[in-house]
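TOPIC: backbone geometry
CONTENTS: sequence, structure tokens:
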Amino acid sequence: MQQEKLNVALLSVFAAIFLTGSKLLIGLLTGSLGILSEALHSGLDMVAAVITYFSVRISDKPADKQHNYGHGKIENFSALVETFLLLITCIWIIYEASNRLITGETHIEVGFWSYVVVLSSIVIDISRSRALRRVAKKYNSQALEADALHFSTDIWSSAVVLLGLICANFGLFFADSIAALGVAMIVLSVSFQLGKRSIDVLLDKAPQDTIDLVKQTLFEFPEVKHFHSLKIRTSGADTFVKVNVHLDPELSLRQVHEICDKIENEIGSRIKRSEVNIHAEPQDPGHIQTEKQDGL
């Protein structure tokens, strides 16, 4: 498992290095702000890919005395770092594009290699994002999932630059700067998504879909008379679930243990890489409850 995740992360690093170098070279030769902005974008992609690679290496280390819940949050932290890198990209692109539009200095040379590097970027990014998304889904890796989302935006931003080059070929040179602004808008959108998600996890915000799944699972056990104090947190690819359940007070300790094991196994089968802790309490015979659960 670890080796496959490392391989796809390392492949992204090499792809980013190739794209950054080729875009920078063609951008400098043609003077295209659209391609130069893509070069900077790919350069930060390269940094993000390196961060992802090392975060994947660290995140699967087992829990120890200093890190009782493992090292999974390094993945979420790396996603937050990617967000800041994307924001830096946007600031530079918006500044340069606005300056060119205001001053009118938008003339560029559009040649054969301009189209080659942009089209190659689109093809490479499609294959790269697909590979990352496949492995991320397979191993529930948030770092690789963030990387896949990050690089999938390169496809759209490259398409915007391609449109700008086509317009510039017909003498509409200002279109290159507008295309660069289009890239910035796309990057800002992705930055917001990545940043919000990583901050939510770092602040231990419970994922609503996981809450609903756990509740539904508990409702399927008739032995559970009532449950409360449901707490869920995620750390990288791992999910931690704690909940108090009320059972028939006449059950033996062995029976209670077996029921809790069944619940933990069922939740574990529905949530990949989860650690479930069930605390059993005797149901008060005089307690009337219309629903099993009435709040966290």
About this structure: Helices lie at 2-30, 33-59, 73-103, 112-139, 142-169, 174-202, 208-219, 253-270. The chain has a mean pLDDT of 81. The chain has eight helices and three strands.
